[in-house]
Amino acid sequence: MSDLIYSLSWAQPELWLAGFALAGALVGAWVKDRGAGLLSGAGCLVLIVAGVLAFQFQPRTAQTLFGGALVIDAYAGVAKALIALSAAATLWLGADHFRRTNEQRFELPVLTVLAVLGMFIMASANDLITLYVGVELQSLAAYVLAAWRRDDAKSSEAGLKYFVLGAISSGLLLFGASYIYGFTGSLRFADIAAAAPAGGVGVTFGLVLLLCGLAFKVSAAPFHMWTPDVYEGAPTPITAFFAAAPKLAALVLIGRVLYGPFAELTPQWGQVIAALAALSMAVGAVAALLQTNLKRLMAYSSIANMGFALMPLASGDPAGLTAALLYMAIYLPTTIGVFALIVALRRDGRAAEEIDDLAGLAARRPFMAALFTILMFSLAGIPPLAGFWGKWVVFMAAVRGELVWLAIVGGIAAVIAAAYYLRVLAAIWFKPGGAALQAPSATAMTVAFIGAALSFPILVLALGWLERVANTAVGASF
Amino acid sequence: MLAAIAFYAMAATAIVSAFAVISARNPVHSVLFLILTFFSAAGLFVLMGAEFLAMLLVVVYVGAVAVLFLFVVMMLDVDFVELRQGFLNYLPVGALVALALFAELGLVASAAGQAGAGRAALSLGGPGEVTNAEAIGRVLYTDYLLVFQLAGLILFVAMLGAIVLTLRHRPGVKRQDIAKQVGRRRSEGVELKDVRPGQGIV
Amino acid sequence: MIETFIVLAPLIAAAIAGLGQRFLGDKLAMALTTGVLGLCCALSLYTFAAFTWGDAPERVTELFRFIDVAGFTSTWSVRIDSLSVVMLVVVTVVSFLVHVYSIGYMADDPHRARFFSYLSFFTFAMLALVTANDFLQMFFGWEGVGVASYLLIGFWYQNKAPNDAAIKAFVVNRVGDFGFALGIMACFFAYGSIRFDEVFAQAAAHPQLMIGVGDISFRAVEVVSGLLFIGAMGKSAQFFLHTWLPDAMEGPTPVSALIHAATMVTAGVFMVCRCASLYELAPYAAGFVTIIGATTAIFAATVGLAQNDIKRVVAYSTCSQLGYMFFAAGVGAYNVAMFHLFTHAFFKALLFLGAGSVIHGLHHEQDMRRMGGVRGPMTITWAMMLIGTLALIGFGVPGFFGLAGFYSKDAAIEAAFAGIEAGRIGAQWAFWAGVGAALLTSFYSWRLLFMTFEGTYRGAAHGHGEHHGHGETHSAHHQQSGAAPAHESPMVMLAPLFVLAFGAVFAGWFFAPYFVGEHAGAFWRETLHVSHGHHEFPDWVIWAPLAVTGAGFVFAVFFYLLNQGLGARIAAAGGPVHAFLYNKWFFDEIYDFIFVKGGRALGNFLWRWGDQRTIDGLGPDGVSASTRFASRQMRRAQTGFVYHYSFIMLIAAVAFGAFAIWAGAQPANGAAP
Hints:
By secondary structure, chain A is mainly alpha-helical.
């Protein structure tokens, strides 16, 4: 009993989220969609509170809760803070957007918060079942969110595709988990860590299948195929949500699995992660070149960026995990900022999502064009913007981890990727004409501005602090 | 001996019927083969001493899920023959991938024979001591409390999702509102009109 | 202090005149630069006098540290010693006179301020060169005068010919400069310093030091001296790298006088004399200097015979005289080389400015075939040119009196003769080439004088209407037959001629004791080592130059005075010898074929095949094309069908699984530490 109370006291952020979800559903059923706005605001608040709690109240040493199912440590704390803050930003964006399009429903904050709860569980998972349950909780909510615009064929298609392919990936994940359980005899990470080196090929096989399932969640190539279709079909604020928080959660989970129970098997999984990273960077960079839709382009951009984030992990060195965490911390605000701008781009009551729609933006809306420029430059990794330092950190980590070939692939991919980021900017600054756009939503512009301000100069200035935090988090946990 | 015969019979049935699920022309037959697969799997559970799981499988999957499938298939009237037209085109590549997968599984299985790791931990406790249901019941609300609750939340999400994606409030649908009906006053229900002869109410 | 002012003042004047010409206007700009140069000139003369007759010490004023990196130090300094004071006088005097002269010569030019700014900048660069205390500052000046030369040759940039000539001068000089830069690097490599004193001390201390690549090695001092001389060949238009100098005559005539006769082209000679200590240790490099110098002397003189452009004749003459200086230096008579440099500056500037006066008077006509009979209208100019010619051919009576060239040129020839006895490499060739060139010099000089000033006017009776802007009244009496339609130049142009003529007459007689005579040791102090063993030359050696000069005069009189038109007839008859000389030994054609056309062909080949096909084809273009292709393929793979996507996922999972099994089977990877 005392274990339960102790566990619950450390699991406060999760309790806040679960409590909000249940209460929110209840209140929502009472006040109907009229209260959606208010409920969304409350959802944002709860997310921020949960994130701050997770970050502020970290145990000195890692604490295992619920009989070892969950672990609370600095690594999870940092990840949860990032997850909660980016989810809050996208929820705010979504609430505002759906209010404008008359699609607001009170389930949005509830589902978002439940998805975040799933991510929190992923970040803290300490056994295979918790891992699976966390992934499923997050995914299921995401499937529903993807099909949010249920009367829109594309949105429904996106939801269905995401669901079917996600189910397959879950199958792979479970299959792999069952192998690991079979060959190590335990679900707990600590026991697996003890048994894994002697597990032989069965454990490796299981781990690879598990990684395949998780690679789907970070949309690493070749498990990326769903990404462009879902990003394009889902409503833009939902896409923003997909692009940010779940990616970080899945990456953090991959890090926890690889550096925790399977740290001894680095020679086996290092090559797999390297292959995933290389393929993701290549596919993300090359396939985006010919895209005309901004959201599809950003989908490929996110594939490439996840490749960059996976790259340092392949070394098996905890410094690689630090680099990946740092990279994601810089990537998240940038990508949310870009999606916020896409949300803000509207014409005649419809979304303007094509690159050609950006023509003449510099003349019509110079502030928006400036924000676009900062964010795109940051994504392209042009110094001195934050994106450059993120890339710098992961490249350095890869080189230190003796993965020079991977760093070279990454360098080439970054150059190719810069081409399409610059194509967007070329349309903004040099393409004349284009029809008039509606006045952008203040909320979207605020989010975009925060994203841009973080990209330059706030995160650049805070780079040292960020690195220290990531270092301590990884150092305390692995 | 008897157990071995039963195992091979039910395993073979499971594989054959699973193949029949994807090859049957009639979708109703497919669902029925699926039910047969579930039954065979349940039989395998029983052989392993997990009778609770076996019953659960039959009750939940056969009794609820598969029957639901049947209803859906019959109601939707989807032309599955048309959907499956390209099926054979993918067969060679698919067979190749399947073959590779089986080869891998075989290799891993042979490795398992050598390693024999974690064998002991696999049993659910001796059959004579406690029943299945009791064994599960002992850990479900204690060791696996968190997971159990999270599973509940997953179901909650599923419910919410179903509602969000399908529930529609159609305008113009007349519903009963007892309180409103009871609370009606005369002034709301009756209106007096002065009718002139030969003109009617305009 | 004074010398610092002398060096820097022209730069400041150039900057003010060049950058502020819009505010100053032409008149003020000209007045400023000319005034500053006058002041510099006076101060230079004072410095020279104080150094020569007073007891002013040799000194180095360090202005600032230019480069100080990892043992490599270069200091910006002003060095005053016997060599640099001579050069200071030469540069500032000629520069000042040319400034004054240009006021008249460029009177009609709309860009006078720019012209004067360039002139002053050139003067600064030249002064920086001659007052350098290390090789890097010398190189700076070396390049600075190159830039100024480029700007001034191409001053009339609206026309094609000056532009081409400017580019040619620059490019050919680059060849030499490359050698010079290599020489400096080799010097630093071998001796660890580029300061003159330290380098000379090191070279003297380790005369047998070898440098080289792999098994091939040479004496360091030979390598350094040889490479430095390649730079001198470019700057001083010596054989093989001389082709730019005649073309440089496309620039305004005062420029030719200042840069391409008196100062810049002598920088090579100055440099060799400055490095005399090195060349004394390097007999082969010195021999190379002698041979190239002697060859240039005779070669340029032969070409000068057949040229018709008045400035080109003088330019080839300059080339030839530079050859004299070099072989004098090559045989060890550095003081003689400097002496010839000194006197040559006077009479060659005089000749150029005189030629400029003629050109000015004939409305920019430069072809001697269309001159003649100019003596009548331009008597003063004629007299000046006559003095210049006499000085150039070295007219004088041994032991009594002679014009400037008499003392210096004969000294050079005698030095070559002395070199034969001393066993100097190439001295034999230098002596005979010097005597032969003296004959040719006499011939072409008189030819120039006769063709230009004597006989009847051969130019077209061109319409003068277009030239009336000159404001001169010269149309009426020019029309009479014989006399040329010319006008005498204004006083501002003639005055510098008088000064130079005075120098051409008396400089040799007055300074011979100091440069080469009994006071030489005291005059040069420690800077130049003067060969003390005073030779008693045979009489024929002393009289030979005078004899051949007289012979040249007789030939010229025969061809161009008594039988007017004979030269033209020979030219018209063609003949391989004339064609060979007229075309300057076909140097331009050969260079054009080998370097220009060959370089262009090589460039075309590299461009089309190397760059476009290979690098672009496999590089940017090929990469971008294949990237686009890959992108298109990936877009096609994105079919939108769920079963395609899931199939790809399954294949990937199987592939990764196979990889894991394979990796697990590897014994090396199997057990992690």
